[in-house]
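ok new one. same drill as before - structure tokens go in, u give me an amino acid for every spot. 564 of them this time. try not to just spam alanines like last time pls lmao
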């Protein structure tokens, strides 16, 4: 590949002049000294842009990396937009345990303050749901969380929230991005810490916000008498992240014993005990499962670094010497089933789920007289539906879920919330225990009633600029398929292309929903936060056909993987 060396040098030198952090600056200086044009191209061929969860990328020097320059540039764009939208704007800011998270949070705070915007900055790391709550509680114009969620340790990110408490959606996200792209280097070079602090606009988030959040979660319990003082043991891992303090605090408040993996208890952006800090990963949950066996735990919980994703494992023997990790869809089904059965009132309950979450949730809700709404992937779309329901006299928000371990049971938060969902999971387990049932038995009963369904999620990674082009080619080739075409050994029945944006029921989005004549459903979407294409395969068995489906599933998955 031929590179425009002059253009790359201009971009690199401009970046070096504006980068505050020496480690990032030195990376680019070294690339220039070695005339590594391929490396410089990857760092500067594009700028990080907003996806389904904001801004996220690998830490390092360059416009295609997460660094102090990018934080300042995006925050200046956000500042410009806030000052246009509000006469007295304010922002709440939180950060997780990742490398540079605290520094990036401070950099964002200083840029906002230098632009005359009031800032509430947490003085300790806090999870995503507590920031979402704080935005609403403090009535700020916006919020920021410095986090890369469950990504590997070399990543960090920047999530922006609007006054509703949900992540920014159109037109706000486009407007912020537009203004960030027009920010000049000299606009952020001139910002100094001393001048920003001198305005007195930077203050800590008051302690009362945390207390209000905890009180709200405890008040949301459906059957609190079953939780307080329950003689159960919870095994938990925060995976070196932000969930440790709030989850243990709430469990202590209700008098439930909680044992925590000591090696994963303290915040650590290197995530030294796991390759991927994600409760979806069996490897990440191994240590807490080992602890559960030793302590004979009744339920196992795990949260990712920013505590918006919740993993659950349950014992499979009365002796509690073996545990089964539940899938994201299984957790969604159990929580939805429990909440809809425990809820009372004249209003109709509404569940909001991502389009890649199991349709069994829909069946359960509708069977109980409720309504289920599908939205695009990204919890900000669920948050939009919650806001719309606030005005309804006939319906209320009951539950939001994504198959990627994201759940919400409280409308006071507008993002997925592993903290409050963890307490609901403990309540749910306690309830079924009083009826002589395990969570596995309840899940099996649901399958007996509605039919067994399962799903498999797999992905392909495509790093760098070449990977981005490859992803575009793959999506284009899948769009060329028509009804009666064959993919692998399966005949295509229909394809819904959400990029078309007409009569799909969704805003335009790079998503394909493919149905096959043999009953399978395949959803294909490039990730908005990672360089990969994700594939969601859904299959369902008629009543009594579970064993046959489970036996044939591995071959079916391999067939689709090979074809894709």
């Amino acid at each position: 590949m031929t590179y425009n060396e002059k253009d790359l040098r201009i971009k690199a030198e401009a970046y070096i002049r504006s980068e505050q952090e020496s480690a990032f600056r030195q990376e680019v200086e070294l690339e220039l000294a070695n005339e590594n044009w391929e490396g410089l191209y990857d760092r500067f061929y594009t700028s990080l842009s907003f996806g389904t969860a904001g801004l996220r990328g690998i830490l390092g020097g360059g416009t295609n990396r997460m660094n102090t320059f990018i934080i300042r540039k995006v925050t200046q764009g956000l500042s410009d937009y806030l000052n246009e939208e509000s006469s007295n704007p304010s922002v709440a800011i939180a950060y997780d345990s990742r490398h540079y998270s605290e520094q990036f949070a401070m950099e964002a705070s200083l840029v906002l303050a230098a632009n005359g915007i009031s800032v509430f900055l947490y003085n300790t790391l806090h999870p995503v749901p507590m920031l979402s709550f704080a935005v609403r509680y403090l009535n700020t114009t916006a919020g920021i969380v410095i986090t890369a969620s469950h990504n590997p340790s070399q990543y960090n990110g920047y999530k922006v929230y609007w006054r509703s408490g949900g992540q920014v959606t159109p037109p706000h996200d486009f407007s912020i991005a537009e203004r960030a792209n027009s920010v000049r280097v000299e606009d952020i070079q001139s910002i100094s810490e001393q001048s920003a602090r001198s305005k007195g606009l930077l203050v800590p988030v008051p302690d009362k916000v945390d207390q209000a959040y905890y009180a709200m979660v405890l008040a949301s319990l459906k059957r609190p008498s079953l939780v307080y003082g329950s003689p159960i043991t919870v095994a938990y891992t925060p995976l070196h992240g932000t969930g440790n303090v709030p989850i243990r605090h709430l469990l202590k408040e209700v008098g439930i014993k909680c044992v925590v993996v000591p090696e994963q208890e303290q915040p650590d952006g290197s995530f030294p005990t796991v390759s991927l800090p994600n409760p979806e990963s069996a490897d990440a949950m191994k240590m807490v499962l080992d602890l559960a066996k030793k302590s004979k735990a009744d339920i196992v919980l795990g949260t990712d670094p920013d505590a918006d994703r919740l993993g659950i494992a349950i014992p499979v023997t009365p002796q509690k010497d073996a545990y089964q990790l539940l899938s994201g869809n299984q957790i969604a089904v159990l929580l939805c089933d429990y909440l809809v059965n425990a809820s009372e009132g004249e209003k109709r309950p509404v569940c909001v789920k991502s389009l890649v979450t199991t349709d069994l949730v829909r069946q359960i809700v509708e069977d109980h007289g409720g309504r289920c709404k599908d939205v695009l992937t990204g919890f900000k779309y669920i948050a939009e539906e919650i806001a719309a329901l606030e005005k309804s006299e006939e319906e209320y928000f009951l539950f939001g879920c994504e198959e990627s371990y994201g759940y919400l049971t409280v409308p006071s938060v507008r993002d997925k919330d592993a903290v409050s969902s963890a307490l609901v999971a403990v309540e749910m387990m306690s309830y079924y225990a009083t009826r002589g049932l395990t969570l596995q038995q309840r899940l099996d009963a649901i399958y007996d009633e509605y039919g067994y369904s399962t799903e498999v999620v797999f992905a392909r990674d495509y790093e760098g600029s070449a990977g981005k082009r490859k992803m575009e080619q793959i999506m284009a080739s899948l769009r060329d398929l028509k009804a009666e075409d064959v993919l692998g050994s399966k005949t295509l029945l229909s394809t819904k292309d959400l990029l078309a944006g007409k009569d799909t029921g969704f805003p335009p989005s790079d998503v394909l929903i493919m149905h096959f004549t043999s009953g399978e459903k395949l959803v294909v979407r490039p990730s908005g936060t990672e360089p990969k294409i994700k594939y969601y395969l859904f299959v369902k068995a008629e009543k009594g056909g579970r064993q046959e489906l489970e036996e044939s599933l591995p071959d079916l998955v391999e067939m689709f993987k090979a074809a894709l």
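The two ends are 27 Å apart (CA to CA). and btw The mean pLDDT is 93.
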